[in-house]
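Researcher: Let's continue the batch. This sequence belongs to Cytochrome oxidase I, and it's 360 residues. Same format as the previous ones, please.
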Amino acid sequence: MENLDVMVLRTLRDWRQAGHRALLATVVRTWGSSPRPVGSIMALREDGAVVGSVSGGCIEDDLIYRHTSAYAQTDKSQPVQQMPSGAPAFVKYGISADEAHRFGLPCGGTLELLLEYDPDAQSLAELVKALESGQLMQRSVRLADGAVVLAPSLAPAELSLSATELLNTFGPEYRMLLIGAGQLTEYLATMALFSGFAVTVCDPRDEYRSAWSVPGAKVLSEMPDDVVAAFKPDGRSCVVALTHDPKLDDLALLEALDSEAFYVGAIGSRRNNEARRERMIEHFGQTEASLARLRGPIGIYIGSKTPPEIAVSVMAEILAVKNGVALPRDVDVSHAKNERAVPENDTALAEGLVCGTANG
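Model: Same format as before. Here are the structure tokens for Cytochrome oxidase I:
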């Protein structure tokens, strides 16, 4: 699954280029609990087609009813609605407890949307092109008439709303680079794709690449450190080493640590991760300070033993770091295992079974 904002904007672009009337709805304010955060967008076509979300579904249904002819097509008793034209308009949902209940909003939840009618197709095409090329973009909407100005942005920013304009920053996609194309990688790649990451998998080993079965992920055969350098990880990128092979993992991790990647980590037992750090300090001139960002054992402690559960654990940690959530120490794998006196399994380690687990 691609980044949701890009998908919404691309679909809206296609609708407008094909001559359809459509609107773009943006969550601009929330009070109390709300199902979607400020900045969330959805597009609505004149016949009722919807992409994206601003709630859990009830508000989308109301927008369809109020702004399209969708219901009149199947229920002749319903009046034919026409999508408005002109300047953007604001609409609030959940002002009263009864309305909040009607629209399925959490207790006390209220949200406000800005509706842009028939956004300019050319401007949408320019925005989507920039996002697809990896550019972070700011979109400014003049409230008086809906005129849009696009500009590159240096850093992500929260949505800003003034008396005269709306500023929203979009893209680019979050990216994940996975080193190693084994079974665990397949589960993690699948979860990452459905979480909106663009996924690249690197493995120079033919036997692993030939068995790869996850569509949507880009698979490369070059050496991992070269791939990391070409990947150019930025603040919306993460790099995860999953091969258990120092020849493949170590140099790639060192390359990633010199980047702006928000997450750099490697699979492995406590013993293997400690050995990795010792190698990097002894042979590559690293220090404890330079390795402070290197995560391992990766994941959160949920007692995982199987590849799919380990992938859930790792994906949860990556999403927490991405979203700026500080995880409690109790879920740190090393701390949790030490507290529970969980032993390393020497036999399994020798066979390469447990060395790759996050929790087991």
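Researcher: Any comment?
Model: Residues 346-358 have pLDDT under 50 and may be disordered.
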